[in-house]
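User: I've been going back and forth on whether these two constructs are worth ordering. Before I decide, could you fold them both?

Assistant: Sure. I'll take them in the order you sent them. The first construct and its structure tokens:
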Amino acid sequence: MALRKIHNTYYVYYRDVDGKLKTRSLKTTDATLARRLHDDYILQLQAKKGRAVIMRDFPELKPPPELPKTATGEHQRGGMKIADMLECALSKRVLGKTHLEVWKRFADRIGVKYADQVTPDIAQAYLQKYYSTGNGKTYNNQKSILNTIFRCCLVEAKLSESPFRPIVNKRVTHVDSHRNLTLAEFDKLIAAASLDVKVMAMLSRWTAQRLETCAGITPAMLDWDRKVIVVSPGKTRRFHKWVCCPIMPELEAFLNGLGINKFPPSVSIVKSCGYLNNRAFSVKFSRLLDKLGIHDTKDGKASFHSLRGTAITWFKEHGIKGEELRQITGHESDEVEDIYARDIASVSRIAKSFSE
């Protein structure tokens, strides 16, 4: 940078930030003032060049990504369509048939197109409109399923939380309790039942499993050498829970009498005996109980689920308790190796002890 006097006027010569040589008039003929203006200009230019170096070496940071937003009822760009959420959820976890049915009804009924349009108010109004009747269990179950699918899609839908999360579960009231069937009632039932009912009743009576689990037992699940059945219960299948049931002598004799060795290995035993579906069977079983005079009492409701209570009570009365009973009624671990290492051996001993 230099100071020059041209035609009695002082000029400053300098090289700018872009590297080009430039000239600027100081508009004065006073040497002292020109020197002071020159020094001030040097300071300004040095500061300007310093800022340029900083901007070059330390470029401005990009603004952080937008934080997830809560549902506002107004669709914002970048969200996700409700119609696409089920496929997204299925890519992240296993969902059951009930999940698919519940979500399809929700997508058809909710009345909005995008996930961020579903506010907690809208979500609660939906549950109240369609599931507010009854004892509260259906309301809570529907809420749980919908909340699960929303939680699977929070990132894609750009939401901070599911609109169903703030909704409080209803207090469950008027829950049916099931009484045990007596052994005399069970014998009466077996004598009058059709083949599919006999098979289902015998499976439940001697394995202590629920209706949907008994309906899914296939010949391939029966290990005759160790006298056990390893099965994934229908109610907890999505949690990868397993149970190991003993093949008791009474059940073994009954199944052999059916000629089970000739049944298709991968088809459920009851399907080979004329079984239709769970709902039709429940109606058929209830009508049979009424016909036989096996009714509800003050102790609880008489139903197919009563056989599970009968079986558990029988096992307890015959010395099977604690961990062994939990292995039969509902396993605690989802590790198959753990089942084969520990449970099958102990349950096998139970079955063989009753066969002696």
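The second construct, handled the same way:
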Amino acid sequence: MNETHISKLWNVLPKKLYGMPAPKKDDLENLAKTGIKSIVCLLEDNSNIKDYHEKGFKSLWLPVADDKAPTFEQVEKLVSFIDEQNRNNNPVAIHCQGGKGRTGTLIASYLIAKGSSYEEAMNQIETNQPNAIKKDFQINFLKELSKKEK
């Protein structure tokens, strides 16, 4: 049996926030069965957003280049979207292509924006998705965000 992207779903905040690789169209039904109702897509290509809507998911397209850090404005949009979805009992999955670097960075950004220290956020990501955040520009962005959020 082939491993689906759904089997690579990683839980950050139970019933609230998950990370994952980009789901294939065929994975969306199984993703819905996990209880996830909202998706944040970090890919530069937004062609999958239509598929998400067709399957009933709420979505946010927040494109982050594979070799770039997000912006503070993108983090603000992410926090607003996740908080709104969670208020409506809609668990959120965030994905880039592989479900590690950009996904881990944005999830850590959310945790920092909600009060976690840089170290706490990094520990939580490392526990759930080892080696997700390893590029200097991602680490530096999270450290800057942590200073900004204090």
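Notes on the second construct follow. Strands lie at 10-13, 17-20, 38-41, 58-61, 92-95. The mean pLDDT is 93.
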